[in-house]
Amino acid sequence: MSELVRLQRRDEIALIIADNPPVNALGQALRQGLLQAFQAAEADSRVRAVVLVCEGSTFFAGADIKEFGKPPVAPSLPEVIDVIEGCSKPSVAVIHGTALGGGLEVALGCHYRIARADARVGLPEVKLGLLPGAGGTQRLPRLAGVAKALEMILGGAPVEAGEACEYHIVDELFEGDLTDAGLAYARRLLQEGRGVRRSGEQTRGLEGTDNAALIAARHAEVVKRSPGLFSPLRCIAAVEAATRLPLAEGLERERELFLECLNSPQRAALVHTFFAERQAAKIADLPVDTRPREIRTAAVIGGGAMGVGIALCFANAGVPVKLLEVGDEALQRALQRARDTYATSVKRGSLSEAAMVQRLALIEGITDYAALADVDLVVEAVFEDMAVKQQVFERLDAVCKPGAILASNTSSLDLNAIAAFTRHPEDVVGLHFFSPANVMRLLEVVRGARTSHEVLASAMAIGRKLKKVAVVVGVCDGFVGNRMLFQYGREAEFLLEEGATPQQVDAALRNFGMAMGPFAVRDLAGLDIGQAIRKRQRAILPAHLEFPTVADRLCAAGMLGQKTGVGYYRYEPGNRTPLENPELAPMLAAASREKGIERRELEERYIVERTIYSLVNEGAKILEEGIAQRSSDIDLIYLNGYGFPAWRGGPMFYADSVGLDKVLATIRELHARCGEWWKPAPLLEKLAAEGRTFSGWQPDRAG
Ligand code: CAA
């Protein structure tokens, strides 16, 4: 038997104990061990029932994701589950922690399932670009019904044990020791004469509803909501097979569809993202014994949209937060904004009245800096101007207690200069939230030259507490996200001067998978915001670099985007649908004429390469400069803050999958034709020459 699985006999019950830390992922050795343990229990004539438990913090958390993409090694999980389900002695899965993916499928292969009351079960494969490939799409609908099965398989979110019980996924809840509960349940089965009960032979879930109609409705919804995603439609096809085929044939169909997903580039990208999120929490030079400071109370300076959004993040996480504004009127406006945001969530049904009241009670409006004396963390979210930041940080330095963490939400200013306004630059860190802060998952944690290890660890811990994807970045203009966005936005504008319309550029990038096109985004944010950044860039960048002029022309004409009803697009009052701005065409013509450009039709592929590769080239520079720790951190920033399609894995992973040699060849052509902006990043040249990838590159191994 494998070292990861132990088989013990307790009277007439075989107790199978799996132990594969940290999450009991079902890797080959564990599968082998389970297979042998069930076969041994079957062969042992003294055994009348089987109990399966896991050691550690959780039941099986699924297949071993690290094995995907490698040659399969027997026994496969479906083979193991076949043996478990086929066992002639009743078996009980004892679930604690989370039974996810292949883990829940193992449990569904057992004849009975009991779960600790705080456990959760789910089929999250869709988030990895997969479908449940070990019988989940066939067994779950038979137990829980097609509607619930589709909800769980397409949504990927786990359900609480209580709910799993209601839907016949779990038979009974228990409290206390796993083994005791499992053995007691198995003894009861034997006493009551309840024998083998195979999920695959159940039909209850498939009866009494119009399954074809349910499936058609979900199909239409997926086509509308997730265009471009590969696995959801295959999940539906697999469940559909369960409604009309006998188990064995349904399992075969599931396998075919699973393999299609497994071999798709989307699976590779989404698995990359899974590990990227876990990697991001690791900071190479942070001593392992670094302890984050405890954050019991927080404060936010500035009650604009960003400040209020940040305050909501704290309240949502149950952290009491003080919101400071300069005068009572501004404070009341800020508090009203908080109330309005929650009221909208209540109206939409995503928040209960009681939760709203609870969260609002955690937000205390203040106008006096003296009230900040006892807070553990302050986040400054005032106007993006160094003189204003200076005033704020000097005041914070004077009133805050020793050890309080002083964070700035600056999106582009020099954090080291801000830290220098205080006596404790080691307590200063950047917490760059993205708008709307209470919605967007990304948090750039900006590490200043003097930020202490403890404060950096605390900032990452706060990110986790606020349920953000926290990514460490170094200090430079725009940090990672906005520094790359500057390149992307500029190239998009150059495309307008070459001959494209905003509609064409936006459509090409939406077709690529971006959540929004760059011009729709600019109209939403307001063109005046970028204007200040463009001015600053022009002042600091070499004079020979050429800039596009369309945005400035629109600003000069007072066309600032949605807030003025016209920008790159025109908007009817109260309607956000972008319509053609008839005044733009002459502006584009003038911009092209002044630069001596003959306008031409641009191919979609060219539009995508010119914008996306500008991200990649800048990303390579960022990586080499050590502003980001690893390429997957850059990917996370674009996936969670800039609407990059999850199924492409982020710009750096995308470049890796295209092939860095090909990417470099295109960038060289652009360099020759479009000038200095396109100078290839040295790291890109090096990796392309060596046939390597960004993902495989580590700064310390760079050489
Ligand atoms: N395979 C391999 N490694 C896994 C894993 C898996 N299924 N699940 C987690 N891990 C690893 C993580 O990478 C992490 O490793 P490092 O410490 O080296 O970074 C470690 O286990 C701990 O994971 P978390 O940091 O995520 O721990 P957590 O306590 O916050 O969360 C969890 C635990 C809820 C189980 C979470 O890890 C999780 O959601 N895991 C993935 C579950 C999943 O997607 N299962 C489906 C797999 S696909 C499948 O099963 C296909 C099929 O049908 C056959």
From TrEMBL:
Origin: domain of life: Bacteria
Domain 3-hydroxyacyl-CoA dehydrogenase C-terminal: 478-571, 606-692
Biological pathway: Lipid metabolism; fatty acid beta-oxidation
Domain (3-hydroxyacyl-CoA dehydrogenase NAD binding) ranges: 298-474
Matching PROSITE patterns: ENOYL_COA_HYDRATASE
Location(s), subcellular: Peroxisome
InterPro entries registered for this protein in UniProt: 3-OHacyl-CoA_DH_NAD-bd, 3HC_DH_C, 6-PGluconate_DH-like_C_sf, ClpP/crotonase-like_dom_sf, Enoyl-CoA_hyd/isom_CS, Enoyl-CoA_hydra/iso, NAD(P)-bd_dom_sf
Annotated catalysed reactions: a (3S)-3-hydroxyacyl-CoA + NAD(+) = a 3-oxoacyl-CoA + NADH + H(+)
Main location, first listed in the record: other
Keywords: Fatty acid metabolism, Isomerase, Lipid degradation, Lipid metabolism, Lyase, Multifunctional enzyme, NAD, Oxidoreductase, Peroxisome
Family: In the N-terminal section; belongs to the enoyl-CoA hydratase/isomerase family.
Protein name from the UniProt record: 3-hydroxyacyl-CoA dehydrogenase
